[in-house]
Automatic annotation (TrEMBL):
The keyword Protein transport does not apply. Gene3D superfamilies: P-loop containing nucleotide triphosphate hydrolases. Keywords: ATP-binding, Nucleotide-binding, Transport. It comes from Neolewinella lacunae. This is ABC transporter ATP-binding protein.
Length: 232
């Protein structure tokens, strides 16, 4: 469960996030849409504990991020727009290193299985990461989330710069993670991708959540785009 209770984050007098209430249950993928500066990244940074909240609470699996930072870290994985990994190590070595940092010691066969589940074949897993495409690096990021056995996943613009094929693969992967019971929060500008993968969609403007809808397949992407343009 990923939850914000009356989350407010202010910089001086400016509220970057203003009284945000959000609840993402296991098996739900919530896409947060909004124009530049709407407060999406600030929200994610509060969940990560990178930013102290001004008021309200952020909870991961019922644990307050400010009170239980270590327990929260164990349950949470984060995929930024550009995944920071070691270019001179292979995908496999990066996964081994980061899963050890998270306290796990997986066998090579198990690590390869995580990479495979994330869509990276074994032959690529042995190659130097510096030679990977952005889509391949994102897959290593997802494999790290799998190896950590994270229950909650935060994604900030993960598909920006991916070609349509890679973006489509990534969406499929997110659907699988959701089906396996992860709770996922994804900040994105990609309305059509959001329509494609989200179970829930929120539209933010000036730090506030202006619209929230359940994506049950009963509206078209064009309608979402129109709502977005009206809202932001
Ligand atoms: N360190 C900071 N100091 C002061 N203001 C900040 C700081 N970080 C963010 N802001 C402000 O907070 C607001 C929200 O920014 P945020 O980066 O969360 O938006 P966003 O929705 O993620 O935008 P984008 O789509 O461009 O990534 C903006 O008005 C921004 O200028």
């Amino acid at each position: 469960m990923i939850e914000a209770q009356a989350l407010t984050k202010a910089y001086g007098g400016h509220k970057a996030v203003d009284n945000l209430n959000l609840k993402i249950a296991p098996g739900e993928l919530y896409c947060l849409l909004g124009a530049n500066g709407a407060g999406k990244t600030t929200t994610i940074n509060c969940f990560l504990g990178f930013l102290p909240v001004t008021s309200g609470r952020v909870l991961i699996d019922g644990l307050d991020v400010a009170e239980k930072p270590l327990e929260v870290k164990r349950r949470l994985a984060y995929l930024p727009e550009v995944v920071m990994l070691y270019p001179t190590l292979s995908g496999l070595e990066n996964l081994d290193y980061f899963s050890r940092l998270a306290g796990f010691r997986h066998r090579t066969a198990q690590l390869l299985e995580y990479l495979e589940r994330a869509g990276l074949p074994a032959a690529d897993a042995q190659r130097r990461l510096g030679d990977y495409s952005k889509g391949m690096r994102q897959k290593v990021g997802i494999a790290i989330a799998l190896a950590k056995e994270a229950k909650c996943l935060l994604l900030d613009e993960p598909t920006s710069g991916l070609d349509p094929g890679a973006s489509n693969d990534f969406s499929q992967l997110l659907r699988e993670l959701t089906a396996q019971g992860m709770a996922i929060l994804m900040a994105t500008h990609d309305i059509f991708r959001a329509k494609d993968v989200a179970t829930h969609i929120g539209i933010m403007r000036a730090g506030r959540l202006r619209e929230q809808l359940e994506n049950r397949g009963d509206f078209e992407a064009k309608e979402l785009e129109a709502l977005y343009l009206q809202t932001v």
